[in-house]
Each structure stands twice: as structure tokens, then as C-alpha cells.
TrEMBL record:
Annotated protein name in UniProt: ATP-dependent Clp protease proteolytic subunit
HAMAP family given in the database record: ClpP (MF_00444)
Record bears the keyword Hydrolase: yes
Swiss-Prot/TrEMBL keywords: Chloroplast, Hydrolase, Membrane, Plastid, Protease, Serine protease, Transmembrane, Transmembrane helix
Protein EC: 3.4.21.92
UniProt record, GO biological process: protein quality control for misfolded or incompletely synthesized proteins
Length: 252
């Protein structure tokens, strides 16, 4: 969590007859992320570990119970992290009923790229200046005195690696040959290449924020009821000026 996160006023029951000063006095001050959760937006902006994974999975389940018809938005900017924690979030995304948009911003490395791929098909979006880095699961053998423990650990990592590869093959246009090559080296893939291989479906999030606010306003009267309607079409949320690569990029 960033240092000095601001608190902002949130009106639970807004009275249209109140003036602005009265509204501010009656507002409940909450942190920024709390308000963003009310727009069904979840941010993963740190390394992936079990505490964060439990928090995100719990939020997705709560939002599903709250309203199973509204989209969930998962914003990702992460260096990756623990494989089992990433798998927890991935499985929850497949379990919940609402479509889960995944929006990649900044760097999406290792398990973070896996979560980007795990979003609802056709609803995986990436910023034009973002980078994806595929990486195989790793293990730390430190502190393991018995060779049997090391072999068991290697076997577990191989099982997880196969699960990750299977998901990539099912949800992208990556071949096993290209995937094996990518997993063995730290190659940062640009957005156009990620779209070509089917890791994401669209590049650019030009009008997504306006539509997100509209969807939230439709189910929460504490948000601005006068927000412009930009959500009539799913396609309008995407950047019409995003580049569309039709030729395979060169692997470096």
C-alpha cells in the first residue's frame, strides 16, 4: 500500500436537498482503494504472495455475492511472485460468475502475466507501453538438507509448470515451442507482440474509466448520477486508435 494514501469523502445516503457543505459534513471519509472497490475495481500493484492473493480472491467472491451481473476489473502491475498464490487468484477468476476484465499496466512479469491471460476471453486489455514477461515457476532449495526433499520440490515445480503451460496453450495462440522458449529466458514482450500471440485481446484503455463509472453508478447511487453514458457498447471501451498487428513480430 503506498505511503500517504489519501482519504476521500464517500456519501452512503445522499440527500439531493442538502447543500455541498452539509454533504461534506455528513460524508464518511474512507481510503481511496475502498472507494475504488465500490466501482468493482481491484488493483494488484505488488509482488504476488499469499496475503495479497487471499485478499484479491476474497474481494472477487464478495463482489460476486453483491452483484453477479456486473463486471469485475483487475488492474495488474506486478513483478510476479509465488506460484501457488498466483494460481489461487487465477482459479478464483475462473470460478466467479461475473466477467473479470484484466488490465495490464506497467510490467507484468511471471505470475502477473499468467493472471493477465486468465481474464475473461476478449476482455484482456493491455496498455500500449506495458511489457509482459513470461517466466517459469522457480524454487529455492536453501535449507533443504535431504536430497529427497529437493527431488520432491523439483517434482512439484514441474507439475506447476505443466499447469501454467496448459493454461497458456488453451487461452492464447502461443505454441508449445514458442512458450518453452519464452519461459526459459527473461524476454520482455511489447504490447503488440502480446496481442499477436493472444496473451491480450486489445491494446489501450482509452474510454474504459468512463464506462466503469457508468456501470458503478447504475448500481450505487453514491457515485455521480450525471456521468456520461459511454457504456452502450463493449467495444467503445477500447482504444480505436490502438495498433493492430497482422504480421508475427520477431522474437529477440
Amino acid at each position: 500500500m503506498p505511503i500517504g494514501m489519501p482519504k476521500i469523502p464517500f456519501l452512503i445516503d445522499e440527500d439531493e436537498d442538502e447543500d455541498e457543505d452539509a454533504k461534506e459534513r455528513n460524508a464518511t471519509w474512507v481510503d481511496l482503494y475502498n472507494v475504488l472497490y465500490r466501482t468493482r475495481s481491484i488493483f494488484l500493484g505488488d509482488a504476488i504472495h499469499l496475503e495479497i492473493a487471499n485478499h484479491i480472491a476474497g474481494l472477487m467472491i464478495f463482489l460476486t455475492i453483491q452483484d453477479a451481473t456486473q463486471n469485475i476489473y483487475l488492474f495488474i502491475n506486478s513483478p510476479g511472485g509465488l506460484a501457488v498464490a498466483g494460481l489461487l487468484i487465477f482459479d478464483t477468476m475462473q470460478y466467479v460468475k461475473p466477467p473479470v476484465y484484466t488490465l495490464g499496466l506497467g510490467v507484468l512479469a511471471s505470475m502477473a502475466s499468467f493472471l493477465l491471460v486468465g481474464g475473461e476471453m476478449s476482455k484482456r486489455i493491455m496498455g500500449p507501453n506495458s511489457r509482459v514477461m513470461l517466466h517459469q515457476p522457480e524454487s529455492d532449495y536453501n535449507g533443504k538438507d535431504q536430497m529427497e526433499e529437493v527431488f520432491l520440490d523439483i517434482e512439484e515445480i514441474e507439475d506447476i509448470r505443466e499447469m501454467v503451460i496448459k493454461a497458456y496453450l488453451e487461452r492464447t495462440r502461443l505454441t508449445r515451442e514458442v512458450l518453452n522458449d519464452q519461459l526459459e529466458r527473461n524476454y520482455f514482450m511489447p504490447a503488440t507482440e502480446a496481442k499477436y500471440y493472444g496473451i491480450v485481446d486489445e491494446i489501450g484503455v482509452k474510454n474504459l474509466l468512463g464506462r466503469l463509472l457508468d456501470e458503478s453508478a447504475s448500481q450505487d447511487n453514491s457515485l455521480d448520477p450525471d456521468a456520461p453514458d459511454e457504456g452502450a457498447s463493449q467495444d467503445n471501451s477500447l482504444d480505436p486508435d490502438a495498433p493492430d498487428e497482422t504480421r508475427p513480430p520477431k522474437l529477440r
